[in-house]
Input
Amino acid sequence: MSGAGGLPSPRAVAELVRAPAALTVPGDALAGAAAAGWPFGAATPALALSSTLLYWAGMALNDYADRDLDAVERPERPIPSGRVRPGFALGLSAGLTAAALGAAGLAGGRRALGVAVPLAATVWAYDLALKATPAGPAAMAAARALDVLLGAGTGRLREALPPAALVGTHTLAVTALSRREVSGGGPALPATTLAATGAVALSAAAWPVPRREPGRTPRLLRRVAGAGLLGSYLSTAGGAQLAAVKDPGADRIRRAVGAGILGLIPLQASLAARRGALPAALAVAAGFPLARRLSRKVSPT
Output
């Protein structure tokens, strides 16, 4: 139940916004900034913060929109269990969205807002109107792709399109798979998402590594680091999807969805490493073990 004054407990709020899964978000901004050749500075973490706030806003809004369905399928979720009131979830989502747009505007001005506003609109449209429609997975993929482009800030936006497409494709597959995490299904869907994961990894490996620039990591080191991180991505996301192909029950698919969400971290780190931003890539990758550990306490799905 809600705590004193009707406010939910910190744990209930953490479950509402799926707090640990937010560790998969800052890497979008870093990958976009690295691809665009935009030097990391104060604006980069501010844009990463904007992305994180929007992610939490989307999670809270998702539970608000799904409160009646969750009462049947997931009664343990914060709203149907009575630990969070629907009005609080909606208000929190609105407040986080406003804060995210404010952070983006302060960090990158009109150009950042030109991406952040459509991103916020996509998040709200997905949760309130598109989630249960055939356009749902594509809308979620678009949100993740825009998140990568947001990280490009005032850099060369066109250069950030390849990593945005890769992150968006991965998200499309995971979102499609998530539609069977309650009911389960046949092996065809996880097999398809497994193929998509393989295609993303191959495309990322084939993404050209630019020649060394002043202050950038040597080309060979970028390749080696990128390949190792891609291996972690395949092991995490692809391994869980392969298990779901063999046993496509709801539990296995739910695990594959969770692994797919966490698998974004090594994918983002690999993309940043290949563009020469190795310190940033290692910083992103460092959050992976923590995200896995926290996901055992608060589900990312």
About this structure: Residues 86-130 form the longest helix (45 residues). The mean pLDDT is 92. The chain is about 70% helix and 0% strand.
